[in-house]
Amino acid sequence: MKYKADVVKEYAGVPALHCLPSQVNHIFLNLLINAAHAIAGKGTIIVRTGYDDKAAWVEIEDNGSGIAPEHLDHIFAPFLRPSRSARGLGWACRSRMGSCRAIGARSM
Question: 3-state SS of the chain: helix, strand, coil percent to 5?
């Protein structure tokens, strides 16, 4: 990834959370890989964290080509491949989201 994008970290001091770190790490890895795949040439990926009295969150932003509007409702569909060159990590993200929902996480 270091040859594909600069990763900018904007962390907001999130407090300790009750979770399964290996599953959360796997989700973040899949999202970062998807972000890198969306970038043509060299780009930027921004990872932000935040929290309030109700929730903590992570945002991952890239300056890649984006998701076509017709695919937005299906981004967690198994093996989604919006283009022939896409690698299709929809299933990996979907299966990990099920694990995260068990601890109260949700995708936005």
Answer: 35, 20, 45
Helix (H) or strand (E) holding 34, with range, is: helix 21-38
Distances, alpha carbon 104 to alpha carbons 23, 38, 54, 63, 64, in Å: 13, 28, 11, 29, 29
Beta-sheet strand order (sheet of 43-51): 5-10, 43-51, 56-62
Hey, which residues does 76 pair with through a beta bridge?
Answer: none
Nearest to 64 by CA among 90, 84, 95, 86: 86
Q: What pairs with residue 6 in β-bridges?
A: 44
* Predicted local distance difference test score (pLDDT) of residue 18: 80
Query: pTM for the complete prediction?
Result: 0.72
